[in-house]
Specification:
Helix content of chain B: 40-55%
Strand content of chain A: 15-25%
Shape of chain A: globular
Largest sheet of chain A: 5 strands, antiparallel
Distance between the termini of chain B: 13 Å
Order of helices and strands of chain A: EHEHEEEHHHHHHHEEHEEEEEHHH
Shape of chain B: globular
Radius of gyration of chain A: 20 Å
Distance between the termini of chain A: 50 Å
CATH class of the largest domain in chain B: Alpha Beta
Oligomer: heterodimer
CATH architecture of one domain in chain A: 2-Layer Sandwich
CATH architecture of the largest domain in chain B: Roll
Chain lengths: 333, 216
């Protein structure tokens, strides 16, 4: 492990200033990704700024009915919050499907948005990897790539985004709030927060160096109560997704089963939390039945590009999405 | 069999009169040079990547860290890279907490911080400063076992025992969090703790018993 200095920050502006002034400094919150990657020599900051003491651990209902989640709210607290469970069940379910109870007690809302990929070639610290060492190549492209992405890949990187929570947030039109170096704040739609890999796989989000996530806001949308998360994986628990789907449905109340609006995001198959507006377009105005759900799934995976070992993910993701939509349609709200 | 594990009598039953702990201690004393060399090789990056970890550590400097573990407050001077797990085991002689994978994948290092179960391998020691840490050593009250410890004994919820401290501390955390009592729910709530001996059925039974507060 590379040596680093360590300091605590008590206020967000202190934390931002401390990281911004040193190009090799980084924030540490729960540590569940960072400490692991420090130990693997994959991440090598020379200074860590501990943000655990920042006063950002509250979940508040906003005047307009939305919910503001502080960046330091732990995954377990967010998952078990009564408001989240009732009004945004997809988020609670996504959180509880991720990692283990111990890790959920550690991981934070802000930190979880910065989770790094589980690509073995990224994590081994020696293979060519454009994400870890820009320009060195990609060992996954010609290697064993069963867990890799089929959506949003590039010639330089096919690493899967590993998260669950961000997939739910992508479906829920969440907005990430940050404090920027040099003062000022900004609000970034979750779907714009992570960037496609393209030319520079080392860049995973739009955050600039030293920019600190302070909160995530969810809009007040009553029909988000009809939402669910389905995660398919190699083990029943404590495993990353091979494919997952976060969905929400707004159904006509007259009993016609017409879909007035929908939200769809996929996990485990893409290089970022994958909002599928193509699927939503198919669903909107359609009838909530198997045929419509399957058509939406076909639309969501239309642009998928398989690698040698992961072609199965395309059909798996379609079935995952189809089943998630069928489940959501039966939720009573 | 008694409800409690009589550590002393078990250790002294060896005809040589040596306890397991004494023997391990002697082994380490007998081969200190090899031990240190091996530790350095393991800690350093691939041979050509840089100086040995200890030289690097000296350069980075030590920092004061105050830890409250099992109600005892200790002031340590640590390399900032020191995990809570290593601080417990190497600096505080609390070797009950086990190092399994050291990457947050097995749960052997589970401890409680402010009564919540966390992984001490992915927690830097400095991050635990200002909080209450509880390890397996802090669960029993004198000779009286914690109900989870007693339930693990009663149900023979281990084989080799290496994952057991993590399993027990995790189960204590589970009881504080709340978890439904059916076997499927207990398995999910305990999914962060792996047991390579496969003692899972007995672990589930022990957790169910501890959860129900039954004593027989």
């Amino acid at each position: 492990m590379n040596p680093f200095t360590y300091s605590h920050a008590n206020r967000p502006e202190e934390a931002v200033a401390a990281v911004a002034k040193n190009p090799r400094a980084d924030f540490v919150a729960g540590g569940t990704t960072l400490v692991d990657l420090l130990r693997l020599d994959v991440m090598t900051p020379d200074a860590l700024v501990d943000v655990n003491a920042l006063p950002l651990a509250r979940i508040e209902t906003l005047p307009g009915g939305g919910v503001r989640i502080g960046a330091m709210v732990r995954n377990s607290d967010l998952a078990n919050d009564p408001t989240i469970r009732q009004r945004y069940p997809v988020l609670s379910e996504a959180l509880l499907s991720g990692a283990s109870p111990q890790l959920r007690n550690m991981a934070t809302t802000g930190g979880n948005l910065m989770q790094r990929t589980r690509c073995y070639y990224f994590r081994d610290a020696v293979s060519p990897c454009n994400k870890r060492q820009p320009g060195s190549g990609c060992a996954a492209l010609g290697g064993f790539n069963r867990i890799h992405a089929v959506l949003g890949t590039s010639e330089k990187c096919i690493a899967t985004h590993p998260g669950d929570m961000p997939v739910a947030l992508a479906a829920l039109d969440a907005v990430v709030h940050t404090r920027r170096p040099g003062g000022g704040e900004r609000a970034i739609p979750l779907t714009d927060f992570h960037v496609p890999y393209g030319e520079d796989p080392a860049r995973e989000s739009v955050l600039e160096h030293g920019e600190l996530i302070t909160a995530v806001e969810l809009p007040a949308v009553p029909w988000f109560a009809r939402s669910t998360y389905l995660k398919i994986r190699d083990r029943a628990s404590y495993e990353f997704a091979l494919a997952s789907a976060a969905v929400a449905l707004d159904l006509d109340r007259s009993g016609s089963r017409a879909i007035r609006a929908a939200r769809v995001a996929l996990g485990g198959v893409a290089t970022k939390p994958w909002r599928s507006r193509e699927a939503e377009q198919v669903l909107t105005g359609g009838k909530a039945d198997e045929a419509t759900f399957r058509a939406a799934a076909e639309a969501a995976l239309k642009g998928a590009r398989p690698q040698r070992n992961n072609e199965f993910k395309i059909e798996l993701a379609k079935r995952t999405l189809t089943r998630a939509l069928a489940t959501a349609a039966e939720i009573k709200v | 069999m008694n409800d409690t594990w009589d550590d002393e009598s078990a250790e002294n039953s060896d005809p040589t009169g040596l306890s397991r702990r004494d023997f391990l201690g002697m082994s380490l004393v007998a081969v200190p040079v090899v031990g240190v060399a091996a530790a350095n090789v393991k800690a350093a990056r691939p041979a050509a990547a840089g100086p040995p970890a200890r030289a690097v550590a000296a350069k980075a400097g030590l920092m004061p860290v105050t830890l409250n573990v099992n109600g005892q407050v200790r002031q340590l001077r640590l390399d900032p890279r020191t995990s809570l797990l290593d601080a417990l085991r190497e600096e505080m002689d609390l070797s009950g907490t086990k190092k399994g994978c050291d990457h947050g994948q097995c749960g052997a290092c589970t401890v409680l911080i402010d009564d919540r179960r966390v992984l001490s391998c992915l927690t830097l020691a400095a991050m635990a400063s200002g909080h209450r840490v509880t390890t397996i050593e802090g669960l029993a009250q004198g000779d009286r076992l914690h109900p989870v410890q007693a339930a693990f004994l009663k149900h023979d919820a281990f084989q080799c025992g290496y994952c057991t401290p993590g399993q027990i501390v995790s189960a204590v955390g589970l009881l504080k969090e709340g978890c439904p009592g059916d076997a499927a729910a207990i398995r999910e709530c305990m999914s962060g703790n792996l047991c390579r001996c496969g003692a899972y059925p007995n672990i589930v039974a022990a957790v169910q018993e501890a959860r129900g507060g039954r004593t027989t």
